């Protein structure tokens, strides 16, 4: 274990030096990095920034809406493949792959993107620090029947209960987002604290291999990645996000408040197209898999992941409720990240543009 931690510390140092020297994003980095300090990448730097003044008109005359690509598939991808954005006068421009919600928040707040996706945990944290964004439409839910995240140990692992996690290494995709905060909530619910475990950062794509090679003790993949891990075998579920949080919309699609104020018509059209795709998928799951596989193939993704797709677990009607957000506000008050009464759910999201509200 000491040797593994030494390697991790060295990796963090090297990454930090390179990042500072070159000013590059670390998206796609495959090195495991560890920390016990809660962070939200870039939110402090970006909180005072304003959107780019670049032209919003595409070559086709449609309104160009910049969005990040994700390591998995999103409802934005499906709505785009269905042509729903084009119907609403919008052309989605994918600006490159990001490594999770905190980075998406940074790119939208800084004006590099117009929309982004993130778990409410990271969004609440960012808004508390002054980042000017607001969620306009749900993007991923979780339920006991179809959770978004699962925490796995090897079948041969001695980890059976929460108490067995003490001193163990848990891999999450990024700090300050869903897997990180659900892990924290689970530990609190079982009379442990984050200081009792070692949280490490690892891309979803590398989690299963790292677990099977003994580099980490527990992994927390989401969506299609946990479905692949189960299909490959050799792993055992410890708990799911829905067992910790209950059924909820746990990820939202957001825009900067400045963008919303300048382009309320585009916000409304975007939400209309996105919610239409959410509901279409519920009735056409097999066709969704085909379209998402096409999207991944055309955008350098792993098209086989689409075969594991089982929806986004978003309630009908596809709206956000106060309880989706209040859970995370309460967790952060408990951690001391927020003061009681500092934020309320309406500071985080709006259903103003949602045709189902």
TrEMBL record:
Region entry Disordered, spans: 35-57
Gene3D superfamilies noted in UniProt: Periplasmic binding protein-like II
Membrane-spanning segments: 7-26
A Pfam match: NMT1
InterPro entries reported for this sequence: SsuA/THI5
Domain SsuA/THI5-like, residue spans: 76-284
Assigned keywords, A-Z: Membrane, Transmembrane, Transmembrane helix
Protein name (database record): NMT1/THI5 like domain protein
Originating species: Methanosphaerula palustris (strain ATCC BAA-1556 / DSM 19958 / E1-9c)
């Amino acid at each position: 274990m000491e040797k593994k931690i030494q390697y991790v510390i060295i990796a963090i140092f090297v990454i930090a030096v390179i990042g500072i020297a070159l000013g590059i994003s670390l998206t796609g980095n495959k090195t495991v990095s560890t920390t016990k300090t809660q962070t939200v990448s870039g939110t402090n730097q970006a909180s005072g920034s304003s959107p780019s003044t670049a032209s919003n008109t595409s070559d086709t005359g449609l309104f160009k809406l910049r969005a990040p690509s994700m390591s998995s598939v999103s409802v934005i991808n499906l709505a785009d493949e269905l042509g729903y954005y084009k119907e609403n006068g919008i052309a989605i421009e994918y600006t490159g792959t990001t490594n999770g919600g905190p980075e998406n928040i940074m790119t939208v707040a800084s004006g590099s993107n117009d929309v982004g996706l993130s778990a409410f945990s990271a969004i609440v944290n960012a808004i508390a620090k002054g980042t000017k964004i607001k969620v306009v439409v749900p993007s991923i839910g979780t339920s006991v029947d179809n959770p978004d995240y699962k925490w796995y140990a090897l079948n041969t692992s001695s980890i059976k209960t929460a108490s067995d996690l003490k001193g163990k290494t848990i891999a999450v995709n990024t700090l300050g987002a869903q897997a990180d905060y659900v892990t924290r909530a689970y530990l609190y619910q079982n009379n442990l604290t984050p200081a009792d475990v070692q949280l490490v950062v690892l891309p979803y794509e590398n989690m299963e291999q790292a677990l099977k090679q003994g580099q980490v003790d527990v992994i927390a993949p989401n969506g299609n990645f946990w479905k692949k891990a189960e299909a490959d075998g050799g792993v055992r579920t410890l708990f799911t996000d829905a067992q910790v949080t209950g059924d909820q919309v746990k990820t939202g699609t957001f825009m900067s408040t400045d963008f919303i104020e300048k382009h309320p018509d585009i916000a409304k059209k975007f939400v209309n197209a996105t919610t239409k795709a959410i509901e279409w998928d519920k009735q056409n799951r097999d066709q969704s898999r085909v379209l998402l596989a096409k999207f991944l193939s055309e955008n350098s993704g792993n098209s086989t992941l689409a075969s594991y797709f089982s929806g986004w677990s978003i309630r009908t009607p596809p709206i956000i409720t106060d309880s989706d957000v209040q859970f995370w506000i309460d967790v952060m008050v408990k951690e001391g990240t927020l003061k009681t009464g500092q934020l309320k759910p309406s500071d985080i999201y709006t259903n103003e543009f949602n045709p189902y509200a």
